[in-house]
Amino acid sequence: MINSAYEMIALVDSQVKTIADPIVRSFLQSLLVRPIKQQREWGYETAPNETFLCWLVLEHTMSDTGIAYSELGYGPSQPWGLVFLSKLIIGDDSGWFSTLERAFYDSYAAGDLKIWNLVKKVNGEIAEVIEEGVTLDAAYGKRDKLKLDPSTYAVEHRTFPAK
């Protein structure tokens, strides 16, 4: 169990070191904050008023969102979660991930980075890159403008070889 801000900083640093994409790593680092210990509400009717210890580690104030870490709730398998800054709630299970990097890609903060590709997939594999290195909105906008089938044409972040 993480018991101090220093332990949380060490964990965040170890997660950041695994991010191969230099643009993602740099931008994510610019949003990191000194870990803030918080009690966040679980928010499910089956456990009213139940709270879990979380550490807020990243803030994107423009979207009122951040990334928190908790070994409880959806942790330990999904300890990195997308949270609101203005509401002390855990949020939905779909917003919790196994790594800080994976949580970042699903965050509002990642949308403005030019790391998104519009791709055509065949049998689950990328067969063709239609648009490369654009923002998330631009990639979805291109797909919509061309009226491409979402079941075949996907928007994905670019990938780098693992560190």
Briefly characterize the structure.
This protein is of the alpha+beta class. The protein has helices at 5-16, 22-31, 100-105, 136-145, and strands spanning 32-41, 51-60, 65-69, 80-84, 96-97, 116-122, 125-134, 153-157.
Beta-strand content bin: 25-35%
Average pLDDT, all residues: 93
Which oligomeric state applies?
Answer: single chain
* Count of individual domains: 2
The CA-CA distance between the termini, in Å, is 26 Å
Unreliable spans: none
Query: How many beta-strand segments?
Result: 8
Helix content: 10-25%
Helices and strands, in order, run as HHEEEEEHEEHE
Strands side by side in the biggest sheet: 1-2-3-4-5
Label the structural class.
Answer: alpha+beta
| DSSP helical segment count | 4
Radius of gyration (Å): 17 Å
Shape: globular
Main β-sheet: number of strands, strand sense, barrel status?
Answer: 5 strands, antiparallel
Essential attributes:
8 strands, alpha+beta, 4 helices, five-stranded antiparallel sheet, three-stranded antiparallel sheet, 163 residues
Describe the structure.
The structure is a single chain. The protein is 23% helix and 33% strand. With 163 residues, the protein is an alpha+beta fold. It folds into two domains: 107 residues, no CATH class; 44 residues, no CATH class. The chain has a five-stranded antiparallel sheet. A hairpin with a 4-residue loop joins strand 2 and strand 3. The radius of gyration is 17 Å and the shape is globular.
